[in-house]
Specification:
The complex is a heterodimer of chains A (408) and B (229). Chain A is α+β, with helices and mostly antiparallel strands and 408 residues long. Chain A is 56% helix and 19% strand. Chain A has 15 helices and 14 strands. Chain A has a six-stranded mixed beta barrel, surrounded by four helices. In chain A, helix 2 packs antiparallel against helix 11 and helix 2 runs antiparallel to helix 14. Chain A starts with a helix and ends with a helix. Chain B has a single domain, classed as Rossmann fold. Helix content of chain B is 35%, strand content 28%. In chain B, the strands form two sheets. In chain B, strands 6-7-8-3-9-10 form a six-stranded mixed β-sheet, sandwiched between helices. In chain B, strands 2-1-4-5 form a four-stranded antiparallel β-sheet, with helices on one face. The chains are: A alpha+beta (408), B alpha/beta (229).
């Protein structure tokens, strides 16, 4: 028999009350663990989506390009991008280097003109490393780097009333400010998840973009895709150093720096779930404090007896804190089992969540086994129970012995 | 006989709202090794207050209390707790056993506080329970014991750390006549066997009849001189 064993028996003394308090801990733990898993899955999905939908892990361009001071497409284009791509490719962590030309213009079907956000790219490597080609709803992806074809977002195609196989004309301003126009064939339509982008998306080959902008040999930027698991933050300075050693002065950014949407969604989720977590902790705190205070009040005379027999006040405090911790441990174990069960059920059910703001497609509901969330839940619940036990414990330890013994 | 505990001018005042209640008013008392002392007096005379002060359960407002010649009234709470654990045993009117512990575990509890090894604790608890006639009740919880059996467990618990003084406040008040006699017999025998001093408070004449010395309290003062039967 030890102080801990006595605490364990005290918890079991009023089973119904302990089960109710433990139940609150179970649900509090499960809520934190499951919402953490859902957040983790959402962040992971958003990260992968951001990287694979065109941003890549890293981007290298002229510093002025990142500063947003480009008045016309390719005004700050990278000359000699082939050499830069060659240096980058030598790094063992680099999977692919994708040259891109960003430009804007008007697409017309002869009757109607619609503005677009265009990207000139190399179709082969893009299809191998990015998910854009997988978003095709009809037609086919671009094939040859010099092909005079385009893939349109479904929204843009609807606005132009065109389908795969139709011809359109592209108008854009060259870096020198001259308006140029070229005919192109629509080879495919892609469903871009973000609605606003879907209504402006146009992908074409580097060859057509260069010809339209009359800027052969220059690109806007180099997009780098790393082998997974990738650490873009660590790779950036290393790759920049390699480029600088090769005499190429460029700036670089990680996907997280470039993805404002990702950062905003992350902040939103952290805010929402943080608030929910706080509410849960308060609920658990109140329930547990009620249990511990009732336990202390009901056992006042017994506490007096223990003190009379020579138990130090600190041991009385430890006894109550141990009771709180025992409730926390059992509650967390139950919470972990409940979380894993609900997680398995949800992941098996194949549910789809409504699309978040600005996104045209719903997200499949999947809850990750996010160990950090389980650890955070265990810590939060244990700390809450300890805090809830502390005040009754202190009161019990400070009570005059003769008052406690005389308590009825 | 050798003096263990000595109080001089012990005073204690309680407050009922704004009204002072002078429970003890300058009591001088000496407890000697191995004696059986009974404090008698009417309700409210100060018997329980004096037992509480002698057992370091409460602080006197005035006077001194020496244990083996060393002052103990002003010790800090931890030192007082250690002295209660090591030097005193307590028997309460309502038995005050820990409900979630078995008879054996209740007896072991003071030994656990003292850090006695588990095996020694178990063996000594079994011996003590056998001594108070409860050898077959070691694993029974208090709610399944009779009043007399509970008080026997409480006596065994009081003896756990081999104290020099056992303080018993109205130990037979909640027992029927026959059980009370049995408990008093047990206390008397232990008192003689182990040379443990017993200080009992009671107004039961059967308890007083067993005393080696009787102090009578009235209105917080000792009104009768010590006597030995």
């Amino acid at each position: 028999m030890s102080l801990f064993a006595l605490a364990l028996r005290n918890v079991a003394r009023n089973r119904r009350r302990s089960v109710l308090t433990g139940g609150v801990v179970v649900f509090g733990f499960a809520a934190i663990a499951l919402s953490g898993g859902f957040m983790s899955q959402s962040f992971e999905g958003l990260r992968d989506g951001t990287i694979r939908n065109g941003t890549g892990h890293l981007q290298f361009a002229d510093p002025a390009f990142f500063a947003g001071s480009e008045d016309a497409a390719l005004e700050h284009g990278l000359p000699g991008s082939d050499r830069a791509a060659s240096i980058l490719t030598q790094d063992p962590e680099v999977l692919a280097v994708l040259p891109r030309i960003d430009f804007v213009g008007l697409a017309t079907n002869g009757n109607r003109s619609v503005p677009f956000l265009g990207t000139g790219l190399d179709p082969g490597p893009e299809a191998r490393t990015m998910d854009t080609a997988k978003l095709l709803a009809s037609g086919r992806w671009l094939q040859d780097v010099n092909e005079r074809s385009v893939v349109l977002g479904s929204g843009l195609a609807r606005a132009l009333n065109v389908k795969a196989g139709d011809a359109i004309t592209l108008l854009a301003t060259t870096p020198e400010g001259v308006l140029n126009a070229l005919d192109a064939t629509v080879t495919g339509l892609a469903d871009i998840p973000i609605k606003e982008l879907d209504e402006r998306y146009l992908a074409t080959t580097l060859g057509l973009a260069s010809e339209l902008l009359v800027a052969s040999g220059r690109v806007s930027k180099l997009v780098v895709v790393l082998h997974e698991p990738a650490d873009a933050t660590a790779a950036l300075p290393r790759l920049l150093a390699s480029l600088h050693r090769g005499g190429i002065e460029v700036a670089g950014k990680t996907w997280e720096e470039l993805a404002a949407f990702y950062r905003q969604v992350r902040m939103l989720y952290v805010g929402i779930f943080g608030f929910m977590g706080l509410v849960l902790v308060v609920v658990v705190l109140l329930a547990a404090a009620n249990t511990m205070m009732m336990a202390a009040a009901e056992r006042t005379r017994e506490i007096g007896t223990l003190r009379a027999l020579g138990t130090r006040p600190s041991a009385i405090r430890r006894l109550f804190l141990a009771e709180g911790l025992i409730l926390a441990v059992f509650g967390c174990l139950g919470g972990a089992i409940l979380s894993l069960t609900i997680r398995a059920g949800l992941n098996h059910a194949g549910l789809t969540l409504p699309p978040p703001p600005g996104v045209s497609h719903g997200m499949p509901l999947h809850v990750n086994l996010y160990v950090t969330a389980y650890a955070a839940a265990a810590f939060a619940m244990s700390a809450t129970l300890v805090v809830a036990s502390w005040f009754p414990a202190r009161r019990a330890a400070r009570m005059p012995i003769i008052d406690a013994l005389a308590h009825v | 006989m050798e003096t263990i505990l000595e109080g001089r001018g012990l005073a204690r005042t309680y407050w009922l709202g704004a009204t002072p209640v002078r429970a003890l008013q300058g009591v001088d008392i000496t407890i000697r090794r191995g004696e059986l002392l009974v404090l008698q007096g009417p309700s409210g005379s100060g018997k329980t207050t004096l037992i509480n002060l002698l057992g370091l359960l409460d602080h006197p407002d005035g006077g001194t209390l020496d244990l083996d010649g060393a002052p103990v009234a002003t010790l800090d709470e931890n030192a007082r707790a250690d002295l209660r654990r090591d030097r005193f045993g307590f028997v309460f009117q309502s038995f005050n056993l820990v409900a979630v512990l078995t008879a054996s575990e209740n007896v072991e509890y003071p030994m656990m506080l003292k850090g006695v090894p588990r095996e020694t604790r178990k063996r000594r608890a079994a011996d003590l329970l056998a001594r108070v006639g409860l050898v077959e009740k070691t694993d029974v919880r208090p709610d399944l014991l009779s009043g007399g059996q509970r008080q026997r467990v409480a006596i065994a618990r009081a003896l756990a750390n081999e104290p020099e003084v056992i303080l018993a406040d109205e130990p037979t008040a909640n027992l029927d006549t026959r059980t009370a006699d049995d408990v008093l017999d047990l206390m008397s025998v232990i008192n003689e066997e182990r040379r443990v001093a017993f200080v009992l408070s009671s107004h039961d004449p059967r308890v007083v009849a067993r005393a080696q010395r009787v102090l009578t309290l009235c209105d917080g003062r000792i009104v009768a001189t010590p006597s030995a039967p």
